[in-house]
User: What shape does this take?
Amino acid sequence: MVEYPKPFTTTDNIASYDGSGGATNRRGYNYGGDGGGIIWISSSDQMQLVDSNITSDGFSGKNNDGFALGSGGGAGGSIQIIAGGIKGNALITAKGGNGSWGAGGGGSGGRVIVNLLRTYDSKSYPAISQGWNGRFDILGGTPGAVSSSIR
Assistant: This one.
């Protein structure tokens, strides 16, 4: 019996998927943007993420002297943070890369998972993330522009 890879679902509680690379328009060349990687950060204590960035972004499709027209952006990767609590103002991103000129598709946004270790009592959650005022960004990349002058 053939076993297929487990599909990516929203019920998975682990960051184990890297972003796929973008498509290229030319056989034998890699003009599509690379996908983001996998980042795991774990601490049983409170994490202080002050004035910092954690990124697993996909790269944009390449524009290479007209040969890479229509190359896609890479998908964002995945980030998982497991901590006793989280404070700070970090920017955490797993964004998709932009498509190249000539209608290259933008890469999809990735995945950010934050697991706070304490208790299952829902009343404890505000206390363990009270000092967090950072931002998350998992937007997809923008498509490449199309121009009537491209042949």
In short: Strands lie at 38-42, 46-49, 53-55, 78-83, 85-88, 91-93, 111-116, 135-137. Confidence is low (pLDDT under 50) at residues 4-10.
